[in-house]
Design goal:
Blueprint (H helix, E strand, L loop, with lengths): L1 H30 L11 H6 L3 H37 L5 H32 L2 H9 L8
């Protein structure tokens, strides 16, 4: 009887400890990661839909675009972080948040303009069938 009771106590304690540690790990994982952004077409995803021959044709353009894209994405990331800081600040200020959101909109608008310009340049190198494939890729999920 004593062994059964001791076994039950050890079993329940072990279960509680495992749930506690699991909760800490899961909570730490989700706390450090913002919720995912909604899926939207991305130039890189669209290009992945093209045949290898087409990719080779546009590769020099993509390489030329890469440095500007990285700096622009970094700017958007910093603008999003600023919005997060303003939104979660102890001394919340509506005007400060409004300015941070305006800056984020500007960064995203600039990125969108560049991506549209890049799409125009890339489409200019493709034939009608390849452009059709590129267009259809905007309606698909990205390759993983």
């Amino acid at each position: 009887m004593f062994k059964q009771r001791l076994f039950a106590i050890v079993l329940i304690s072990s279960l509680a400890l495992n749930l506690f540690i699991g909760g800490i790990l899961i909570g730490g994982y989700f706390q450090g990661h913002p919720p995912p952004h909604p899926m939207r077409p991305n130039l890189h995803w669209m290009i992945q839909s093209l045949p290898e021959k087409s990719k080779i044709k546009i590769r020099p353009l993509m390489q030329a675009f890469r440095p500007n894209m990285f700096s622009q994405m970094q700017g958007i990331k910093e603008a999003r972080q600023a919005v997060h800081r303003k939104l979660t600040a102890v001394n919340f200020n509506k005007e400060s948040l409004s300015q941070a959101l305006e800056h984020l909109r500007q960064e995203m608008g600039t990125m969108q303009q560049r991506m549209h310009g890049q799409l125009i340049e890339i489409a200019g190198l493709l034939d009608a069938k390849e452009r059709q494939q590129l267009s259809e890729a905007t309606h698909r999920k990205p390759f993983r």
